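ugh ok fine here u go
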Amino acid sequence: MSWLSKFVFVIGGGIAACGFPPFFVVPCFLISVGWLFYKISESERWDKEIVTYVCLYWTSFFAINLYWLAIPLSFDVKQYWFLIPFALFAVPIILSLYMLPAGYFAWKFRQNLWISGFVFACGNFFATLMYGKFCPEFPWVLPGYIWNAGDITIQMLSLWGVYGQTLLTFVICSLCGIAYAQYQRHQSYKMAICWNFIIISFIFIFGYVRLNTNPMSYTDYKVRVVKSNVSQENKTTSQQRYQLLKTYLKYCQHTDREFDVKTEKYENQGQVDFIIWPEASVPYLFRDDFDQLISQLCAPLISEELLLVGVVRQDVTSQKVFNSIVVLDGLKNVIAKYDKRHLVPFGEYIPFRKYIPSTFRAVANTIGDFDRGAMSNMVELKGLKIILSICYESVFSGEVVSTEKGDVIVNITNDSWFGYSSALYQHLQIVRARAVEEGLPLIRATGFGIAAVFDAYGRTVALLDEYQSGVMDFYIPQKAESTIFARMREIFKQMKFK
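structure:
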């Protein structure tokens, strides 16, 4: 087991990572994972050597895609320094172990490349399903997302969602490996190449037809999304927090970036239906009886405008604290609210807090626990059914729409914890996938990172990139016909509750 061989597998995992945003070099993932299957199928023994190679490959893949997990810890290095190696190395190693059984069972059936390839694809699919849906519920680097590289290729998500596309992606990888293995064995490899050609052609033809038969169309609802682009280190002092609130209030009153999609011109048309601020944009605790704060937030609203704003909310009755969205009108009324239900482990709560060893309890106590919301994420405002989600909730395929289908998805988030890293691009593409899966337009408001609006087919309507601040004014796109994915999700949900 030479160091050169280890290095080759590390490089292989790094090449596969280039298939994900912000690079989106899709062939890198397909060919690299296909090469991994070939190396497994050609191994004479399943021993420590091949296990090490497979683990090095996937560890490299996950480490390059998820290095940004260590960035939030760097804001207080003195407190969390010992957790940085865990984020950089332990998390990728743990995730790589999920992929190991797929390699083993593919090796067991190596005498028949077609069966081995099928087992390899299915095994890796179940591994991603396991770490994405069950434990640790971290559906981030799912291979199905590499097809977000283009408006055409992302359309497959409307059929079977990101997990179905992940399975198809591993099938393509296996076919690449089968073709190369057959070539090396001096066997006919045309069948594997032919199947890959058919599958990839179908992806492009389906996407092309779906987009060209559904041109962009818009509702009459006009929205303004506000973005401050203030980094996390500039929110620490009371003066900085006060300035942050003033920035948001200023952008409600003045429009320095209005693009009217109907006229395709920058215009100043004043009033909108909804103004959306990002997650935790109000840098103070919010309560329904804090009249002075509510008056300040509602001051810029004119006529029938509504403000959807991300707050840290304390319930007046129970005293529980939530990560919330509240809806305010110009008469200073709280007319709707939603409390986040899917909290971020180790960020918004500490799992198994009472079992943490006393050595680490002091550090754990620096992270407070938010309470978990229980209310529906659907609100109806001005006749528009809006599905609300906060940050991490948007990464769970099939779980954003929890009740009836709405008219638009609104996702508010705060990516300032991750600086100018690849997390900004990855998070954006994950959220974009929800629009295509559900056939609903999606509005993404973020204080730092990339704010964007997508139509029901994942096409970009408006965008403020990671270096821009200001506002986006736009009309909400029309929703699409119910997708096959959405219908299947409803069927499974009904079966679950029977």
